[in-house]
Design brief:
heterodimer; A: mainly beta; seven-stranded mixed sheet; B: 112 residues; mainly beta; six-stranded mixed sheet; 11 strands; 54% strand; globular
Amino acid sequence: ETGVTQSPTHLIKTRGQQVTLRCSSQSGHNTVSWYQQALGQGPQFIFQYYREEENGRGNFPPRFSGLQFPNYSSELNVNALELDDSALYLCASSPDPILVNTEAFFGQGTRLTVV
Amino acid sequence: QKEVEQDPGPLSVPEGAIVSLNCTYSNSAFQYFMWYRQYSRKGPELLMYTYSSGNKEDGRFTAQVDKSSKYISLFIRDSQPSDSATYLCAMTAGGGADGLTFGKGTHLIIQP
């Protein structure tokens, strides 16, 4: 077990709705990244938070937003859901922003289905 | 052309065989190379990471990076049915804020 937990595990939403996904990192891990993994694809980087500030972003529109809290938890918010947003959403935490990519521990993911 | 290319498989081999998994990439700025294993309905699990070119060994696993050819490999010796999973290569230029760029993953099946 990585010590990174995500909730909920599964979610079904309707196109146009908004969704919030949650991640609880390991204690002491001050960096969290979010990824989208479509079926049959590798994960794609959405954004990264370090000490509650976004410090990196992939090629995702502004309707994907996030928050990181002092208690090592974080959220991914997606507005105006589209059918293509259906995917497994993964969060990854790291103890150090320099090691963020070489020591990233992933949660089990939230499977989002948009209908 | 995608930044990272990886054959999705499936790759099916008998138990005990040596498995070779590979990725090619186009971005010469990549310096950190990782291999993740992902079981069905689970998040990716880091197996190994390598900085720049060279080899790294950990038990039954060996990772190789050839930056001149933009080619990375993962070898699994004495493969076991429990190694059946999807193997994802990932890489980054470093600096932290770029995130990881993943391949599609190779679905590996080890036949008992």
